[in-house]
TrEMBL record:
Protein name: tRNA (guanine(46)-N(7))-methyltransferase
MF annotations from Gene Ontology: tRNA (guanine(46)-N7)-methyltransferase activity
CDD domains in the record: AdoMet_MTases
Gene3D superfamilies, sorted: Vaccinia Virus protein VP39
SUPFAM superfamilies (alphabetical): S-adenosyl-L-methionine-dependent methyltransferases
Alphabetical list of Pfam families matching this protein: Methyltransf_4 (PF02390)
One Gene Ontology term, aspect cellular component: tRNA methyltransferase complex
EC number: 2.1.1.33
Keywords: Methyltransferase, S-adenosyl-L-methionine, Transferase, tRNA processing
The reaction(s) this protein catalyses: guanosine(46) in tRNA + S-adenosyl-L-methionine = N(7)-methylguanosine(46) in tRNA + S-adenosyl-L-homocysteine
Xref: InterPro entries: SAM-dependent_MTases_sf, tRNA_(Gua-N-7)_MeTrfase_Trmb
Amino acid sequence: MLSSSNPIENKKMGSLCQACSSSFQATPLSLAKSVFSLASSSPFIFTKGHKINRYYSTFRASTSGSSASTSVCLDSKEVRSTDLVDLEYAELNLKYKISEEVGHVRIRQHVNPLSSSFSTPAAVPAWDEVYKDPSLPLMVDIGSGSGRFLLWLAKKNAESGNYLGLEIRQKLVKRANFWVNELGLSNAHFIFANAMVSFDQLISSYPGPLEFVSILCPDPHFKKRHHKRRVVQKPLVDSILQNLKPGGKIFVQSDVLDVAQDMRDQLDEEAKVLDHVDTVDAEGGWLSENPMGIRTEREIHAELEGARIYRRLYQKKNILID
């Protein structure tokens, strides 16, 4: 049952219920998109630059000819970013797919990659055991977090590419690989690794071409004396460029302007090797939209708080690096 003191909002909520209940080919993803599409125009939902309370009564939508139903709204509570993450990644249906072995994953938000405990290079896997076809183009997500972003891409492009997540928090890697198995993906894998130490050794051994590298909302390490802990440093940039195929791309983003500028400045220094992809807005040379087709979890959290996401996309020139 819908509840709002505003008749306009009631009408919008009614439209949302109607859209969900009348969808003959309803899927969790389509329902989620309906929520975002209709909700985005509501002042009760989100206004850029402001965090606003949002309230819904619970409703469920059933697919035609099936007893299956999908919850797409909340029990009269303020919408949280975690709820929006569930909606964004509804197609994966991962929420309850946690093994007893992995359990509930609680992690530190930030770790020191310069610690001695992260100084040992990760072992190179047997690529033909990790991927069904290790000759396919590879995308590497440095700092893959929970892995949902990479899993969504891997599922969408199951036959055309392989996806590798490098993550410094081991519990996240363990859970992400559990999800890979649950989803039956043969083109996704996650490795517990410090990219600053392990990137070159891992990627240079991969049989296929490195086509895409993403570094999305990395740990900001705000204090100046801790900037050396930031993942985008000259040695890693050199390693990425050495392994990236001509025409391959690097995508970086952050909701922290200082971090985004730092990554931009380091990559802009490689102008002899990299072209900046020129799809930008008029302010600061940042990409106006996310080109990946799905937002990362951090992106969702930040945008809910009204933060801007600073994005930059580069493409390697068709030249050889000595």
